[in-house]
Design a protein that fits this description.
Helix content is 64%, strand content 0%. By secondary structure, the protein is mostly helical. The protein has one domain. Helix 6 runs antiparallel to helix 7. The two termini are 25 Å apart.
Amino acid sequence: MGTDGVAGFAREFLDSIDRFGGGALDRFDWAGGLRALGFEMDCGKSLEVLYGIEIHNLDGLRSGIGGIDDAQALGNAVFSLCRYVTHWAMGPGEGDLDWLRVALGRLLELSGGSLGRG
């Protein structure tokens, strides 16, 4: 998993969410990008085991985000939430897009990128 690729992916996905909201999950190839970077859908298990944070728990993610230092677990959780929203839910629920923004922002930080756009 190259950090440049992860940073570029996270930045592009964040930009897509900012532009298209929930439609970003239909417009952006998040599955192909995450898979190519070595992430996998694990139903959020690795994030929960390592940090006690469940996908869908926005408050838990916000309070624990600074302690997350395992990019693999975080990327797997992003993959899992996206898969849930697009395959099992009726679209993003309350907080799902914010959860993705927080998680992708941290993934960007962990890969040496920044949220600054320009």
